[in-house]
Design goal:
It is a single chain. The protein is mostly helical. The chain has one domain. It is 78% helix and 0% strand. It is built from 14 helices and no strands. Helix 6 packs antiparallel against helix 8 and helix 12 runs antiparallel to helix 14. The chain is globular. The relative contact order is 0.22.
Length: 323
């Protein structure tokens, strides 16, 4: 039995790493389409997400609707708003106004927030055993932002404050989403993690329709055909890779790992965002950035070690649910 749980833990960690690799791409998207507003980017991404999700849901709809009641649909509305529409609009604004480094730094504290909240769950690993992992994660995030924040003061003070406020708002929004989504997946045994992700996409797409009206019809800027094609390619790519595939992997992981370990998996989003930044800027990491990578990896490994089941004892955290 312990062997099955250990295998499930490592599978969950693998899904979390893969989700982080795909989610790291969303930090690059605002840089790729800087001529478009954050609202346009969020609306475009989630319109594409909703369209792709709807196409995939249609063949499965008859079986899915049986297990979906009013409570589940309202949960999807809240989760879609918190984890997608509101979060990404705030994130994109923070990147374009305050910079990618500052935004990565603030969002990097997601693991701490989620892990601390998860430590209050019944049967969870006590917070005192998670202190080394949280300390390493925090040190890694501080290393990431040390040099970049030192050079961020060149922009207007108002822009820096607005960017920071948006980044903190994105942090709060996604923390609420991660905790609530994990708990819903823990009780939804009749809906697979992938189907839950697709249904989230459909609801998000409907919300994005309302967002698209002010985002596109009321915009003052005018773009050429080439710019629109480029924008469409970026939002479609992010929708498929980050939203469809990444969210499915994250939901699968959320059913395999306790919330205290799930929180640590968010570090991989920051880590991969950093690595993509190196590739985009065509440079090697600095000493502080290498230190950050080492701290992030150490944080996750330390957290995994704490969650390893001991012989003769039940594993801490959530009982694994079938998908």
């Amino acid at each position: 039995m312990n062997g099955t749980r250990v295998n499930g833990t490592w599978l969950g960690i693998g899904c979390g790493i893969a989700a982080g690799a795909l989610w790291g791409l969303v930090f690059l998207a605002p840089e790729l389409v800087r001529d478009f507003t954050p609202l346009q980017l969020a609306a475009g991404r989630y319109l594409a997400y909703g369209l792709f999700a709807a196409v995939l849901v249609v063949p499965r709809w008859r079986g899915l609707r049986v297990g979906m009641g009013r409570a589940e649909w309202w949960a999807l509305v809240r989760l879609s708003l918190l984890g997608n529409i509101l979060y990404y609009a705030l994130l994109a604004t923070a990147v374009q106004v305050g910079g990618m480094a500052m935004t990565s730094l603030v969002i990097g504290f997601l693991p701490v927030a989620v892990t601390v909240i998860g430590s209050r769950d019944h049967g969870a690993v006590p917070i005192r055993r998670l202190v080394p992992s949280l300390a390493l994660g925090g040190a890694g995030i501080l290393c990431i932002g040390w040099e970049s924040l030192g050079g961020a003061a060149s922009g207007p003070r108002t822009a820096q404050i607005l960017g920071l406020a948006c980044a903190v708002g994105a942090l709060a929004s996604w923390t609420a989403y991660a905790v609530s989504n994990s708990r819903w997946l823990g009780r939804l045994h009749h809906v697979s993690a992938h189907d839950w992700s697709l249904l989230t996409g459909v609801v998000t797409g409907l919300q994005a329709v309302a967002l698209a009206v002010p985002a596109f019809l009321m915009a003052q800027d005018h773009h050429g055909t080439g710019a629109w094609l480029h924008f469409t390619g970026v939002v479609a790519g992010v929708a498929v890779l980050a939203s469809i595939v990444g969210n499915a992997l994250w939901n699968r992981m959320s059913r395999l790992l306790p919330l205290t370990l799930t929180g640590q998996m968010i570090l991989f989003e920051t880590l991969f965002a950093l690595l993509y930044g190196f590739l985009w800027e065509r440079r090697l990491p600095t000493v502080m950035e290498i230190a950050a990578i080492v701290c992030v990896i150490g944080s996750v490994l330390t957290c995994v070690a704490v969650h390893r089941p001991k012989p003769g004892r039940a594993e801490d955290g959530r009982v694994l649910a079938s998908v």
